[in-house]
Design goal:
five-stranded mixed beta sheet; single chain; Sulfite Oxidase, Chain A, domain 2; 18% helix
Length: 177
Protein backbone atom coordinates (compact mmCIF):
# COMPACT_ATOMS: atom_id res chain seq x y z
CA UNK A 1 0.00 0.00 0.00
CA UNK A 2 2.85 2.49 0.52
CA UNK A 3 3.33 2.67 -3.28
CA UNK A 4 -0.28 3.77 -3.88
CA UNK A 5 0.42 7.51 -3.41
CA UNK A 6 3.37 7.21 -5.77
CA UNK A 7 1.26 5.35 -8.34
CA UNK A 8 -1.53 7.92 -8.02
CA UNK A 9 0.95 10.78 -8.45
CA UNK A 10 2.54 9.11 -11.49
CA UNK A 11 -0.91 8.61 -13.03
CA UNK A 12 -1.81 12.25 -12.50
CA UNK A 13 1.45 13.38 -14.08
CA UNK A 14 1.18 11.05 -17.07
CA UNK A 15 -2.54 11.50 -17.81
CA UNK A 16 -2.15 14.89 -19.54
CA UNK A 17 0.60 13.42 -21.70
CA UNK A 18 -1.55 10.48 -22.72
CA UNK A 19 -4.26 12.82 -23.99
CA UNK A 20 -1.71 14.63 -26.19
CA UNK A 21 -0.20 11.45 -27.65
CA UNK A 22 -1.89 9.05 -30.02
CA UNK A 23 -1.09 5.35 -29.94
CA UNK A 24 -0.81 3.49 -33.22
CA UNK A 25 -0.08 -0.24 -33.06
CA UNK A 26 1.92 0.08 -29.90
CA UNK A 27 4.01 3.07 -31.00
CA UNK A 28 3.39 6.56 -29.72
CA UNK A 29 2.96 9.36 -32.22
CA UNK A 30 2.45 12.98 -31.31
CA UNK A 31 -0.69 14.69 -32.47
CA UNK A 32 0.20 17.90 -34.27
CA UNK A 33 -2.16 20.83 -34.24
CA UNK A 34 -3.12 21.96 -37.71
CA UNK A 35 -2.93 25.71 -37.99
CA UNK A 36 -4.10 27.70 -40.94
CA UNK A 37 -3.10 31.10 -39.65
CA UNK A 38 -2.10 33.53 -42.35
CA UNK A 39 1.19 35.39 -42.11
CA UNK A 40 0.78 38.58 -40.13
CA UNK A 41 2.57 41.89 -39.66
CA UNK A 42 2.63 44.33 -36.77
CA UNK A 43 1.75 48.01 -36.62
CA UNK A 44 3.53 49.52 -33.63
CA UNK A 45 5.75 52.31 -32.38
CA UNK A 46 4.17 55.56 -31.23
CA UNK A 47 0.60 54.33 -31.46
CA UNK A 48 -2.00 53.92 -28.73
CA UNK A 49 -3.30 50.61 -30.09
CA UNK A 50 -0.63 48.38 -31.68
CA UNK A 51 -2.09 45.98 -34.23
CA UNK A 52 -1.32 42.59 -35.67
CA UNK A 53 -2.85 42.31 -39.15
CA UNK A 54 -2.99 39.91 -42.07
CA UNK A 55 -3.46 40.54 -45.78
CA UNK A 56 -7.15 39.67 -45.33
CA UNK A 57 -7.43 42.34 -42.61
CA UNK A 58 -6.23 44.92 -45.14
CA UNK A 59 -9.28 44.14 -47.27
CA UNK A 60 -11.45 45.62 -44.47
CA UNK A 61 -10.02 49.09 -45.12
CA UNK A 62 -11.16 51.24 -48.05
CA UNK A 63 -9.61 49.44 -51.03
CA UNK A 64 -7.45 51.61 -53.28
CA UNK A 65 -6.07 50.88 -56.73
CA UNK A 66 -2.72 52.11 -58.04
CA UNK A 67 -0.96 51.80 -61.39
CA UNK A 68 2.74 52.44 -60.92
CA UNK A 69 5.94 52.52 -62.96
CA UNK A 70 9.41 52.38 -61.49
CA UNK A 71 12.93 51.22 -62.22
CA UNK A 72 14.16 48.20 -60.28
CA UNK A 73 17.43 46.32 -60.31
CA UNK A 74 16.10 44.25 -63.21
CA UNK A 75 14.86 47.18 -65.32
CA UNK A 76 11.62 49.08 -65.87
CA UNK A 77 8.53 47.68 -64.19
CA UNK A 78 4.84 48.52 -64.40
CA UNK A 79 2.27 47.02 -62.02
CA UNK A 80 -1.30 47.34 -60.84
CA UNK A 81 -1.86 47.13 -57.09
CA UNK A 82 -4.85 46.91 -54.78
CA UNK A 83 -4.51 47.58 -51.09
CA UNK A 84 -5.14 49.81 -48.11
CA UNK A 85 -3.68 53.27 -47.70
CA UNK A 86 -0.79 53.29 -45.25
CA UNK A 87 -2.29 56.38 -43.57
CA UNK A 88 -5.58 54.50 -42.96
CA UNK A 89 -3.80 51.56 -41.36
CA UNK A 90 -1.71 53.82 -39.14
CA UNK A 91 -4.72 55.95 -38.20
CA UNK A 92 -6.55 52.82 -37.04
CA UNK A 93 -3.68 52.20 -34.59
CA UNK A 94 -4.18 55.76 -33.19
CA UNK A 95 -0.87 57.57 -33.65
CA UNK A 96 0.30 59.48 -30.60
CA UNK A 97 1.36 62.98 -31.54
CA UNK A 98 2.08 65.70 -29.01
CA UNK A 99 -0.65 68.36 -29.37
CA UNK A 100 1.55 70.87 -27.51
CA UNK A 101 4.16 70.75 -30.31
CA UNK A 102 3.31 72.59 -33.53
CA UNK A 103 2.94 70.06 -36.37
CA UNK A 104 4.45 67.30 -34.23
CA UNK A 105 3.30 64.73 -36.80
CA UNK A 106 5.81 66.20 -39.26
CA UNK A 107 8.57 65.00 -36.95
CA UNK A 108 7.45 61.40 -37.46
CA UNK A 109 8.40 58.73 -39.96
CA UNK A 110 7.13 55.26 -40.70
CA UNK A 111 9.71 52.48 -40.91
CA UNK A 112 8.43 49.50 -42.90
CA UNK A 113 10.29 46.22 -42.46
CA UNK A 114 10.32 43.02 -44.49
CA UNK A 115 10.73 39.40 -43.47
CA UNK A 116 14.25 39.39 -44.96
CA UNK A 117 15.39 42.35 -42.82
CA UNK A 118 15.00 45.01 -45.53
CA UNK A 119 13.61 48.37 -44.33
CA UNK A 120 12.45 51.63 -45.93
CA UNK A 121 11.15 54.85 -44.40
CA UNK A 122 8.30 57.14 -45.37
CA UNK A 123 7.86 60.54 -43.71
CA UNK A 124 4.46 61.19 -42.11
CA UNK A 125 4.18 64.42 -44.13
CA UNK A 126 4.35 62.37 -47.35
CA UNK A 127 1.24 60.33 -46.52
CA UNK A 128 -0.80 62.89 -44.56
CA UNK A 129 -3.70 64.32 -46.64
CA UNK A 130 -2.98 67.76 -45.15
CA UNK A 131 0.53 67.78 -46.61
CA UNK A 132 1.90 65.79 -49.60
CA UNK A 133 -0.99 63.26 -49.59
CA UNK A 134 1.00 60.56 -51.41
CA UNK A 135 -1.30 57.56 -51.65
CA UNK A 136 1.15 54.98 -50.29
CA UNK A 137 -0.36 51.49 -50.15
CA UNK A 138 0.03 48.34 -48.19
CA UNK A 139 -0.91 46.19 -51.17
CA UNK A 140 -2.58 42.81 -50.91
CA UNK A 141 -2.74 42.23 -54.66
CA UNK A 142 -0.27 42.74 -57.51
CA UNK A 143 -1.37 42.46 -61.15
CA UNK A 144 -4.58 40.67 -60.08
CA UNK A 145 -2.64 38.07 -58.07
CA UNK A 146 -3.09 37.81 -54.31
CA UNK A 147 0.00 38.46 -52.20
CA UNK A 148 0.77 36.26 -49.19
CA UNK A 149 2.20 39.27 -47.34
CA UNK A 150 1.65 42.95 -48.05
CA UNK A 151 3.92 45.03 -50.25
CA UNK A 152 4.61 48.69 -49.58
CA UNK A 153 3.87 50.67 -52.75
CA UNK A 154 5.17 54.26 -52.98
CA UNK A 155 3.79 55.86 -56.14
CA UNK A 156 5.96 58.57 -57.62
CA UNK A 157 9.27 56.98 -56.62
CA UNK A 158 11.40 56.74 -59.76
CA UNK A 159 13.18 53.68 -58.38
CA UNK A 160 11.52 50.84 -56.51
CA UNK A 161 13.78 50.94 -53.45
CA UNK A 162 10.91 51.76 -51.08
CA UNK A 163 8.67 49.05 -52.52
CA UNK A 164 9.08 46.74 -49.53
CA UNK A 165 8.12 43.16 -50.34
CA UNK A 166 6.80 40.75 -47.68
CA UNK A 167 6.04 43.40 -45.04
CA UNK A 168 6.51 42.18 -41.45
CA UNK A 169 6.32 45.48 -39.55
CA UNK A 170 5.05 49.04 -39.82
CA UNK A 171 6.48 51.22 -37.06
CA UNK A 172 5.78 54.89 -36.35
CA UNK A 173 8.72 56.81 -34.84
CA UNK A 174 9.38 60.37 -33.80
CA UNK A 175 12.55 61.51 -35.55
CA UNK A 176 14.98 63.75 -33.69
CA UNK A 177 14.31 65.58 -30.44
Amino acid sequence: MPNLPRLLLATLLVLPLVTAVGVTRGTATTVEAVTTSAPSFVVDGQVAEPLTLTVDDLRNFAVQRQKVHFVSGSGKEAHRYRGALLIDVLTSAKPQFDPAVKNDKLRHAVLVGATDGYHAAVAWGEIDPGFANTRVLLAFEEDDAALERPRLVVPGDEHGGRYVTDVSSVSLFRVGT
